[in-house]
Write the structure tokens for this entry.
Amino acid sequence: MYYQSSTTEGRTSSCDMSWPDYAVEADVNIVDFKGSTRTYVTGRYLNGNNFYAASLYNSNEGTLEIRKKVAGSTTTLASKSFPLNTGTWYKVKLEMSENTINMYVNGTLELSASDSSLTAGAAGLLTFKSIAMFDNVKVLDTNGDSTIPPVLEPDPEPEPEPTPEQDSEYNLAGFSEGNTGGGSISETDSQYIKVYDAEDLAKALKKGSKYKVIEIMNDLDLGWNEIPVAARTSPFSSHNSALTHPVLIKTGISKVTIDSFDGLTIFSNNGATIKHAAFTFKKSSNVIVRNLEFDELWEWDESTKGNYDKNDWDYITIENSKKVWIDHCTFHKSYDGLVDVKKGSSGVTISWSSFLGDDRSSNSWVTQQINAMEANKSSFPMYEYLRSSSVGLSKDDIIAIASSQKKGHLIGATEFAVDNAALEVTLHHNYYQDIQDRMPRLRGGKAHAYNIVMDNEGARNAKKRLTSTMDKAISRKGYHFGVTSNGAISTEGGSVLLENSVIIDVLNPLRNNQADANNKQYTGKIAAIDTIYSLDGTTFRGNSDSANSPLSPIPASIQSFAWNGFTSLPYSYTADDPTNLKARLTASNGAGSGSLFWSKENWLGTSYTGY
């Protein structure tokens, strides 16, 4: 079997979705990787956004991986270096038995992982932008016998492109309406560049480069120590050094500054992942970022005793900029914020994106960190104390508590800054899973959130592992280790409106003051409309001003809601009924990167009505 994919994933699978425990094996020959791309042998395959995979990854001269993709979000469960060459046959086997997933290459067990996300599904093969040959495809039972016939047919996915009527829900909306990005230009245009590595990205994002469209062709590892010397130039610079995470100590962190661009689209057609880098957009306008995943920017904080006040690693920071649209992106756990908006930036919309805490799997980013400290406790005084009899937390307790993300969106970084009044942010159709705080947190200005889901069930359960005795012992030592539980926050006269949304297991869903509840200067205006709120199984649907509403803002006296600077929002939008909102955002075509298999023309567009 010969297979080549081009602008979308090439996939084929058997059709029985009920297979639980089995192995799928194939001879794989990569004719051309075409950059740092992956070729998969897949199992428990439900669709293009839900499967396990044995991955041949052309990165760092070759890497083997066990990966999972669930609800469109991809996680590496296990990996190791392994020389890979084009034109060479490799016998690749993915074996699944209950929660155990093994990867064999040429008959040798190379990787093992544990995960319970997917329990059954078909067998398949997958390539993206690579040319590969497959042969001797077998589906084996757990004894290694080829008793299940692998009838491989072309996968009906990618689904046909949505009709204009279906597409229209993805139209650019909110404060960023009118954002043109880099425009819908051809790949052959001199202002269109395809980026395969850090050098390409440095060229594309250099101040004054004149590029309008940047297509990220494959995953990029951008740590300061892992990019070539030729790329260690503006817009790249070295960020604060890692102190505790074993991977980041090796790779380093880069800061990428996008300065003074007017009209720029950065996108991936395949939902590529960018690691070990923090991006700052400054003095820019008409910027669009779409279909990208951001990962591996968190480490355990010993230096500020758990306050996370040292490294200042945010995936994206927007400063002194106008008209920025971030759409269909996925953001994993970070040291500081996920996407922050500062210095009077206006016209910002963040839509159809996923913000996810760590999944706590056997090789997750947090688990790797905790394993490293567990093996050398004496070098990590805070961690050692948490594990001691003085507190009594187990390793699994610490992983669970540390897995949620501390901060979401800070809008307005400086207290009472004059330019805070200009801040404008719209959040819609975003899924926040186990984010402890700031969805968003506003200083002055205006923030509008509609059809978002704050799902903190995992963080709420993790918090229950900490007893009051443990909390007191931790506090006595000056350490900070726990789970905050705040939702949307308005302060310093800001206006935040939350509409048609879902809030799950957030203790303080709406806050109106973060500094001094008795000082009106620090209080903001905030209201919720037709929002579903559940806490520990008790559910309410209504408004923040309904009688006895659990959505009533705290802790300061409530200020009547009104927008700053206008009486009604300056844009039109459609807020969906929140009843099935979580299911919609976590579906295979829901929020996050890699959820839509679109043409490049669609990713460059901003409106789909009439396509």
